[in-house]
Specification:
Distance between the termini: 21 Å
CATH class of the largest domain: Alpha Beta
Number of helices: 12
CATH topology of the largest domain: Rossmann fold
CATH superfamily of the largest domain: HAD superfamily/HAD-like
Strand order of the largest sheet: 4-3-2-5-6-7
Helix content: 40-55%
CATH architecture of the largest domain: 3-Layer(aba) Sandwich
Radius of gyration: 18 Å
Largest sheet: 6 strands, parallel
Number of strands: 8
Shape: globular
Structural class: alpha/beta
Oligomer: single chain
């Protein structure tokens, strides 16, 4: 039997998977919070830990050798936990401002989720954002036709991705098991790792997410050959991380399930 032939639920990530094509909002904010401390980080450095809880994300970026050296040179001392907490406190209000204008639902998502629900699937979600941030995102997404049955945030579990707790808490709230009948859909490597750690099926999103990191408009400007080559590289990264499947967008999920002989599983 194909791995997706029997499913009872799907757990979606948010930025780069269902909203914010290219996962651009958090990347912009990470660059800005370091800039405010006199340290210029690259977008690539900002994107590296994407998918993790945001406080941990900032700590990882601050610990990168190049960033740590820039911090030492500018401040005259190594970055401390106090500095990381201060940047995190800067991050939250700035992220809320950007999310208020940058949380558009990715094209095709409402239709895909409607189809999944029509098949009897429960719809969950998890995110590296805190509940405070999701209180901004959820109403905006709902107004555009997307709202999962369950939303679990990074500050509601003991540890974020790659730990399995986000996914397991979603499963608990959905009251869905066994875990191998749940698929997680994520645009980050750490998200795929978290799905595997939870014993769930893993579906990676290559085109709308963090690894490509381009807006829909920027993607449209690429030649088909260039886009295909970049997506092939990203798919290889996801496969190496253990992704069971790779799709360009969540909009492609219904067709994937149909091709895999999907059939709904009756809930207990």
């Amino acid at each position: 039997m194909n791995q997706l032939a029997a499913l009872s639920a799907v757990i979606f990530d948010w930025a780069g998977t269902t909203v914010d094509y290219g996962s651009r909002c958090p990347a912009q904010v990470f660059v800005e919070v370091f800039r405010r401390r006199g340290v210029e980080i690259t977008v690539e450095e900002a994107r590296g830990p994407m998918g993790r809880a945001k406080l941990e994300h900032i700590a990882i970026v601050a610990g990168l050798p190049r960033v740590a050296e820039l911090w030492q040179r500018h401040h005259g001392y190594p970055v401390s936990e106090t500095d990381i907490l201060a940047m995190y406190h800067d991050f939250l209000p700035l992220q809320k401002q950007i999310l208020a204008v940058g949380s558009s639902v990715i094209a095709g998502i409402p239709e895909a989720v409607t189809w999944l629900r029509q098949q009897g699937l429960r719809i969950g979600s998890s995110t590296g954002y805190t509940r405070e941030l999701m209180d901004v995102v959820c109403p905006l997404a709902e107004s555009q036709g997307f709202l999962p049955d369950v939303v679990v945030c990074s500050d509601e579990v003991k540890a974020g991705r790659p730990a399995p707790w986000l996914n397991l808490k979603v499963a608990e709230q959905l009251q869905v098991f066994p875990l191998h009948q749940i698929a997680i859909v994520d645009d980050t490597l750490v998200g795929i790792e978290a799905g595997k750690n939870a014993g769930m099926r893993t579906i990676a999103v290559s085109q709308t997410g963090n690894l490509l990191g381009l807006s829909a408009e920027e993607v449209a400007q690429l030649s088909p050959d260039v886009l295909q080559k970049r997506l092939e590289v990203i798919e290889a990264q996801f496969r190496s991380a253990g992704a069971d499947y790779v799709i360009h967008s969540v909009a492609d999920l219904p067709q994937l399930l149909i091709s895999e002989g999907f059939r709904p599983v009756a809930q207990r």
